[in-house]
Write a structure and sequence with these properties.
about 625 residues; 5-stranded antiparallel sheet; Beta-Lactamase; alpha+beta; 22 strands; 5 domains; Helix Hairpins
């Protein structure tokens, strides 16, 4: 139990002991849950009968034997009757005179969770006042006596009503506290501004959505909190919300490079409710999915044409090869050789088109980006003229990242060769890499050539556009663009005062860095779970297991020392491993997903945008390569 729970219990106990009435709460099993000190004092009960867990039957038997109810001919029968009445508990109000001559009122009400609460009030003084009134009834009119009796009954009813209202107030307070806790746990910023733009409510999530913003917002103006740049971006939609028009829109925060979705909902009284959330990862996944769909559509269109075109090229090559073997005049032989060269270029172009529209799948693995960039320099330097320099400026964190190293290296090598061709015999090529917050990784290839023409800036990403004349296919940059989009990123081309620059912006996804400790394994197949558990144990993990998302979340809440979560994507119930990763929240426990779904399945694609994915079946070495990449080298 947390410290606050102890304090709350102490406050509650002190408050109950200060009221003048005796109070008890018994649960559905007729066991004492709560009582206050006046209950023990009023009935002079021993300590064991006022301790939580004491039986109702034992308490009634003690009071009967003590004479609380006067002379009882059959004590056990009396006890059984009272217990049966308690099991079929009905709300009631009654008054009775005790054996000691004092009169008490007894008011009982059932509880929604089972059991009941009973309040005992000593009304001896009130009864004496009534008796005094009756003694003087000859001096008072019948109407006044009746009024006094009605007033006394009304007072008792009013006291019961006040008790009920207090309980309702307590329940409302608890409901409000739950609502506030829910708002704080939401992975979104929830707020309300009045008609003047001042915050009246805000949870404490603004800083997790838009970094570098505070949490103490009520009373401050929205422009002062968000700053002029962001406020100017949202003000058109906010103004429409003030006029009663709800809206949802997205924008990119330039400072953090995060994609933010904002919903404005009018409150009907001139103010606006605001819901904003960081959808950067969702946007990255959406971009990757859109690129996959475009490639699938392009493949459908191209494959049929490529098949027939390949057949035609085969016929042309065969016929020209026959002509080449004939004893032709030199001029005709040159024409045949030129035709063969053009046909072979057509075949190479078909292969490039197949690479661009084929089933290339972006497969991120733990990658040492520092090592990849150094290897790039080693690979590219021999292809450059002696008077051309190649430098690498790498300021990325010393963290292994989830990247498709083969596709990325091919893309960067393509850009370096393009820069070489643009520079000619001399020049300088620079490859630079740096992280943008914890959202993106930017890798740029710059050269000191003439830069992009206006036409190239607008057309360079279109397939078959080339500035190299007959020597270029126009598919180099589109293939780089395809790789970046498959990763969920973006590609930018622009000129600088010294030449041209191409920047690859890729999602910044650190590889899991768990190093032993406690692992939470989530798998609903018992046999598979046993095999994977053995792999984790071999890697020095202690393992706790779950079969569903709800069970895993409950375990994660109770076990703060979890170092790794390894979960299947498809699990028991409606929730998936992706939902588990979302519920655990970003930046917390490293999450790795595993699946037997094919890479093209929508769930598989969505999972790759959220966490590293292991394709089933996998071995212990595959798991170690993902969790400890440096040890698997």
């Amino acid at each position: 139990m947390a410290q606050s729970d102890f304090e709350t219990r102490d406050f509650t106990t002190a408050g109950l002991n200060l009221i003048a009435q005796a109070l008890t709460i018994y649960d559905r099993d007729l066991r004492l849950a709560v009582c206050n000190r006046p209950f023990q004092t009023m009935f002079d009960l021993p300590q064991e009968l006022v301790t939580p867990g004491a039986g109702f039957e034992d308490t009634v038997r003690h009071l009967v034997l003590k004479g609380e109810y006067g002379a009882v001919d059959d004590p056990e029968g009396f006890v059984r009757t009272r217990v049966e009445q308690a099991r079929a508990f009905q709300p009631h109000y009654m008054e009775r005179t005790r054996a000691n001559g004092r009169t008490i009122s007894v008011e009982g009400s059932p509880l929604p969770q089972g059991g009941w609460v009973t309040v005992y009030t000593d009304i001896t003084r009130a009864k004496r006042s009534e008796a005094l009134l009756r003694a003087r009834s000859e001096e008072l009119s019948d109407q006044l006596l009746a009024h006094a009796e009605d007033l006394s009954a009304t007072n008792r009813e009013l006291a019961a009503t006040i008790t009920a209202l207090q309980e309702t107030k307590r329940q409302l307070t608890e409901a409000e506290a739950r609502a506030r806790l829910t708002a704080e746990m939401m992975p979104a910023h929830i707020a309300h501004v009045d008609a003047t733009g001042h915050y009246t409510y805000s949870n404490r999530r603004l800083g997790t959505v838009i970094p570098y913003h505070g949490t103490d917002l009520p009373g401050r103006h929205i422009r002062d909190v968000l700053g002029p740049a962001i406020h100017d971006r949202i003000s058109p939609s906010l103004d429409r919300a003030y006029r009663g028009e709800a809206s949802v829109f997205e924008f990119t925060d330039r400072a953090s490079a995060r994609r933010i979705r904002v919903a404005f909902t009018p409150d009907g009284h001139g103010g606006v409710y605001i819901l904003s959330m960081d959808i950067t990862q969702e946007t990255q996944a959406r971009v990757a999915l859109q690129q996959t769909r475009r490639r699938a559509l392009a493949a459908q269109m191209v494959n049929g044409l490529a098949h027939d075109f390949a057949n035609l090229l085969t016929i042309i090559l065969g016929m020209q090869s026959k002509l080449q073997r004939m004893d032709l005049p030199p001029e005709q032989s040159e024409l045949v050789a030129a035709t063969l060269g053009a046909a072979r270029r057509g075949g190479a172009l078909l292969n490039r088109i197949g690479d661009l529209t084929g089933h290339r799948t972006y497969r991120p693995r733990p990658t040492d980006l520092h090592g990849l960039l150094q290897d790039l320099k080693v690979l590219a330097t021999p292809t450059l003229p002696r008077a051309m320099g190649l430098s690498v400026l790498d300021t990325t964190p010393d963290t292994w990242l989830m990247l498709d190293s083969a596709m990325l290296q091919d893309a960067l090598l393509n850009l370096v060769l393009n820069a070489r061709d643009a520079c000619g015999a001399t020049g300088q090529i620079t490859v630079s890499a740096h992280a943008i917050e914890d959202v993106w990784i930017d890798i740029s290839v710059s050269d000191t050539g003439p830069g992009f023409s206006e036409e190239a800036l607008s057309q360079a990403l279109n397939p078959f556009f080339t500035t190299k004349g007959g020597e270029g296919s126009g598919l180099g940059l589109p293939m780089v663009y395809d790789m970046v989009k498959l990763a969920g990123g973006d590609l930018r081309l622009f000129n600088t005062p010294t030449g041209a620059t191409v920047t690859l912006r890729l999602p910044y996804r650190p590889a899991p860095e768990a190093r032993g400790g406690l692992a939470l394994l989530v798998e609903d197949n018992d046999t598979l779970r046993e095999g994977v558990r053995d792999m984790l144990v071999d890697l020095d993990y202690a393992v706790v297991e779950a079969a569903s998302v709800d069970e895993a979340v409950a375990l994660a809440a109770d076990l703060p020392d979890i170092a790794l979560v390894l979960s299947d994507i498809r699990l028991e119930g409606q929730s998936t491993g992706i939902d588990l990763a979302d519920r655990l929240g970003p930046g917390g426990v490293p999450v790795v997903l595993m699946t037997s779904l094919p890479p093209g399945d929508p769930l598989h694609r969505a999972a790759r945008a959220r966490a590293p994915v292991l394709r089933k079946p996998f071995t212990r070495e595959d798991l170690m390569r993902l969790l400890r990449p440096e040890a698997a080298q």
